# Entry
Amino acid sequence: MSALIIRVFPMKWCLVLLFVLLPLAVQGGWIDPAGKPIPDTENMRSAGDFGIQIVLTPNEGQFRETWNSSTMPPKLRATNSVRLGETVSALLIFHGCTPNVNGVCDVVSEFILEGPDGSKTPAGGGPVWSGKPM
# Structure
């Protein structure tokens, strides 16, 4: 699996929901420990064998330390909210990227911030990963 950390600074709202726009697919790229497909959720999507999940954490340093530990699976601290004046970091975890003819995977994202009132603000996007599959 690969990961990308994106720092998100809170806006005027007390609660900010950050999600990734990815194609919805019937097939599941995520499986449970028994090998059964896990249905897509708001923060976890798949297309064929490719799966991506966004995880929000209030403590990026602790998250990185736990992620890089030898304990498998790591017990990661996540959140789904942020208070005014605080920060939250977003981690994209993905697997199953299919390499192009040059043997490189190109993963691209688009982000939108959604306020409690349902208003949506484009929050950028661009390359997430461009390299050989891990």
